[in-house]
Design brief:
Enolase-like, domain 1, single chain, TIM Barrel, 402 residues, three-stranded antiparallel β-sheet, alpha/beta, binds D-gluconic acid, 2 domains, 36% helix, binds magnesium ion
Length: 402
């Protein structure tokens, strides 16, 4: 079997997605997600103009060799655009191999390590009362772990507060919106929110929270300490993580479990965080961190250091990525949890998939390969429309991490 070519499909069923479809001489095709929120067309061009011509006539079973060829062969290494493009090829090759051997991808990754993939959903509210209602709603849907975000009094636009009940989508059409942020108000408010959550819901429910890269290490230490009694499952992205050693300072001040990694694109972004045991969960994803092949290596390095996986699974990661994540999650020993932000019905219709949710768990299904397809005719009805994530400024106008 040989790779004969491929296509990059850009569509926007509710939001933008970039999908790679690789074709082979035996008529089997594989899919890979290549969506990089707000920078979609850069990856589409990287694949279309620079990667697809290199793949023709290669053996699709040589997954590791193709990965190394694309990574080392470019000379220029790493970075989100490159690693998302490599991830898309890698994911499509695993899909092809599974389909060709007639088995789900998880069987190629060592087989099932568990019966289902524990997921967390997103409850949020524009007031504490509405956040409580949203948590209750998620509980009724069967979720056993819930991330809670809430509007902060006095802050015009806190991170993570959606418009609807189930679909939080931060990217918006047109040019980037500007939001305003105040760390002071947030730090005062966050412990109050979790106090209320534990009073209303007790300690059976796993609760998570995302600080979305907005604090300094010492602020994160302060917050973590105050949240300890509310037993968070994790505090996510307390600070931007370019400075990995910055996490030492957080660890010196709090035992709150820390999760990091949704913007990482390779093991080099988290090697120190893992080997110095500065984090508890590594959140790298199939689509942005070099595919299933590279994610397995990160997980293998994390395992002896007691770091568990907790892959990013927001709506900007397509159902193709979600399917791939679930095959990874169900097989890897040191799996922790999977984020599951539901896609809209429009997105699900374009990407029919075998994975299912029940009782707080996702199941990858038993289809050969990844168990996800793209309805290209339907996709064509949703052409790409430029959209961006918001940007952020402090109340005095200084640019801040969003
Ligand atoms: C999460 C994330 C997302 C990101 C989004 C950016 O934890 O799910 O922080 O909400 O902001 O994926 O594209
Ligand atoms: Mg996050």
């Amino acid at each position: 079997m040989k790779i004969t070519g491929g296509r990059v499909i850009v569509c926007s069923p509710g939001r933008n997605f970039v999908t790679l479809k690789l074709e082979t001489s035996e008529g089997i095709h594989g899919l890979g997600d290549a969506t990089l929120n707000g920078r979609e067309l850069a990856v589409a061009s990287y694949l279309q103009d620079h990667v697809l011509p290199l793949l023709v006539d290669r053996d699709p079973f040589a997954i590791e060799d193709i990965w190394q060829y694309l990574y080392k062969g470019a000379y220029w290494r790493r970075g989100p655009v490159t690693m998302t493009a490599i991830a898309a090829v890698d994911t499509a090759l695993w899909d092809i191999k599974g389909k060709s051997l007639g088995t789900p991808v998880y069987n190629l990754l060592g087989g099932r390590s568990r019966t289902g993939v524990l997921v967390y959903g997103h409850a949020n509210g524009d007031s504490v009362d509405n956040a409580m209602r949203a948590v209750e709603h998620y509980r009724e849907l069967g979720y056993r772990a819930i991330r809670v975000q809430c509007a902060v009094p006095g802050v015009p636009s806190a991170y993570g507060v959606g418009k609807g009940d189930l679909y939080y989508e931060p990217a918006a059409r047109g040019l980037p919106q500007e939001q305003i942020w105040s760390t002071d108000e947030y730090l005062r408010f966050a412990p109050v929110l979790f106090e209320r959550l534990r009073t209303e819901f007790g300690f059976d429910l796993r609760l998570l929270h995302d600080a979305h890269h907005r604090l300094t290490p010492i602020e994160a230490g302060w917050l973590g300490k105050r949240l300890e009694d509310y037993r968070l499952f994790w505090l996510e992205d307390p600070v931007p993580a370019e400075l990995q050693e910055g996490y030492r300072l957080i660890r010196q001040h709090t035992t709150v479990p820390i999760a990091v990694g949704e913007v990482f694109d390779s093991v080099y972004d988290c090697l120190q965080l893992i080997t110095e045991q500065l984090i508890d969960y590594i959140r790298t994803t199939v689509v942005h961190a070099g595919g299933i092949t590279h994610l397995r290596k990160i997980a293998a390095i994390a395992e002896p250091y007691h770091v568990l996986t907790g892959s990013h699974g927001a709506t900007d990661l397509s159902p193709v990525c979600m399917a791939a994540a679930l095959h990874f999650d169900i097989s890897v020993h040191n799996f922790g949890i999977q984020e599951y932000m539901r896609h809209t019905p429009e997105t699900d219709a374009v990407f029919p998939h075998a994975y299912t949710f029940s009782d707080g768990y996702l199941h990858p299904g038993d289809e050969p390969g990844l168990g996800v397809e793209i309805d290209e005719e339907l996709a064509e009805r949703y052409p790409y429309r430029p959209a961006y994530l918001p940007t952020n400024r402090r109340v005095d106008g200084t640019v801040h991490s969003w």
